[in-house]
Amino acid sequence: MIRDPELSTWLVTQRAPIERVMSARLGPAAPGAGAQETEVLRRFRSFAASELRRGGGAQPALDGIRADERRVGALLDAWLEAAGERAEWVRSALDEPVRRFRTALRTTGVARTARGKPRARRRAVMAAIDRVADCFLAVEADTGRIVDANPAAGALLGVARDALVGVDALSFVPEESRSTWWTHLDAMTEGSEPQRFQGRLSDASGIPIDVECSVTRFSTRDRTLALIVARPR
Predict the structure, then answer these.
(1) Helices (H), ranges, 27-170
(2) What's the whole-model pTM score?
(3) What percentage of the chain has pLDDT greater than the value 70?
């Protein structure tokens, strides 16, 4: 790790502008002020600045943090890209601190990710969903929280698919269309009949997208998911 006090100072002084750019790009997927992911980003900034100032030796402080590892990884990428014309410089200088921070997040038990290797059937299903050309969202039926998404969903909504994890799905739905979506999500909590409807989404920049949706119920002992496939009309 090479000392770079200049970049360390720059990261501290440019914190607010970088966060504004990141929030503008992520739109509804940007973490809120009190979110765990916001605190994780704050701790990463402190860790990175210390590493650059000292030339290594700092340790990530992750005590008390409970955050989704996939989403944090996507937010770190978005934060690095938000450095603007210095993005490549920042990404290159912080390659090692980012790697160490992600390793610490993964190994200290703070990440809310499934442990162990997924079963072969689950891996096959996940791979098949990733290949679907239409937007796929797995949403908790009672809360509206996104628990999984495919690359097509990220492309349609204008953010990295992992940045969607944990976000309220209805934050990507225009206000006037939310009652329709809630009606079909609520139906998943009460019955297993698949639903079809025409609705509207909006991407990270607020541009509306008319979609044709199919919703299927998937239940476990812990929760009920609405599996949504949305195709632009």
Answers:
(1) 36-54, 69-81, 87-93, 95-107, 120-131, 151-157
(2) 0.79
(3) 91
